Amino acid sequence: MSERLAMHGGAPVRTEPFGPGHAFGDDDIAALTEVVRSGHVGKGPKVEAFERAFAARHGVKHAIAVTSGTAAMHVCIGAINPEPGDEVIVTPWTAGGTIIGALLQNCVPVFADIDETYTLDPADVEARITPRTRAIIAVHYLGNPCDMRALQDIARRHDLALIEDCAQAHFAEYQGQVVGSIGDIAGYSFGGKHLSAGTGGAVLTNDTELWERAVLFHDVALPRAGGPYAERPYGHYFLAPHYIINDLTAAVLLVQLAKVDGYIASKIRAAERIIDGLADIDELTPQEVRPGDRHTYWILGFSLDTERLGCSADVFADAVRHEGVLLIKAENSVDARHPSTGLPRMGGGGPLYNDPFLADPDCYGRSRFPFDHGREQAVEY
User: Fold this and answer.
1) Using CA atoms, how far apart are residues 299 and 100, in angstroms rounded to an integer?
2) SS3 (DSSP) at 250
3) Between the CA of residue 273 and those of 11, 269, 276, 330, 337, what are the distances in Å?
4) Do residues 228 and 281 share a domain?
5) N or C: which end of the chain has fewer CB within 10 A?
6) Tens of pLDDT, residues 100-144
7) What is the Cα–Cα distance from 69 to 191, expressed in whole angstroms?
8) Residues in a beta bridge with 173
9) Does residue 249 sit in the same domain as residue 286?
10) Is residue 371 part of a domain?
11) What is the pLDDT of residues 148-190, one digit of tens each?
């Protein structure tokens, strides 16, 4: 390997591009062909089969397939049916899709701090609860589970809904229990994640009342044949979006579901090799994994000690990219530091409170809604 960095004119470590990351093959093509030849490409038997299979893999009663992870989180919020101005406690280190549904349901995100796992710090979550708090969203960030036992305890004591965002953490485990089966309701993304069909999402729950409202909510609140309200007169029962998927997407998801364990195992092996290979570099600290938990590594995250390294996170990220290795620097990382070490974050995404649509709210025209609803002063981030 050249001693001169590629960004300074040396030979890069890697010159071959990385592959697409997902193994789509003849089995996926056959599944799609079957649906096309059936003449039924809308929501049908493949969607129903995927919902049953996905629920069974998590050991839960109910699954609803939807169009995206953002849609899934919107359905989760719609299922708990909050009042305008209700607060939802969430990490700022997540994709916008985690909170867009909350804003569409007129809720106000309240950001809590994270710990060395890059997931919610339960003590800070509890400190931010107010009479207006309606739910906690536990984001299993980058594939690493939240401290679900602590969050469950907080939610129960304060009578709050506990929503899991599993978009980045397919089949991760908290103390031996698969994520998505622990909270009241959970949302998943199938867009470029471990289980992927290019797009799509899902909602899981063991709560039949939440499932019944979620079924209506994801389909413009119409009582469909075979659904929980099939006996009701036909009509829209409340304001709701249209998030149903089709059998083409579900057919691919069924094939991919059968292969996902091998894909995840390869991701874990790769992450462990990288962590082991970088163990002697004190300036890099990998995302902490709680003993007994299973991180499935959608992304491998590190914290970077820029003072010891002698360069900024921007320069470091640029140097790694020049070597032909993909690295995502967390946006605004200089201002978003680890609560105990003060080190800037690396890994990608967040913090959401610096995004323009929250820093200078632009959600409902020129109004400050929902940030000022029922308040003397609007919430600012």
Assistant:
1) 22
2) helix
3) 23, 6, 5, 22, 26
4) no
5) N
6) 999 999 999 999 999 999 999 999 999 999 999 999 999 999 999
7) 7
8) 178, 294
9) no
10) no
11) 999 999 999 999 999 999 999 999 999 999 999 999 999 999 9
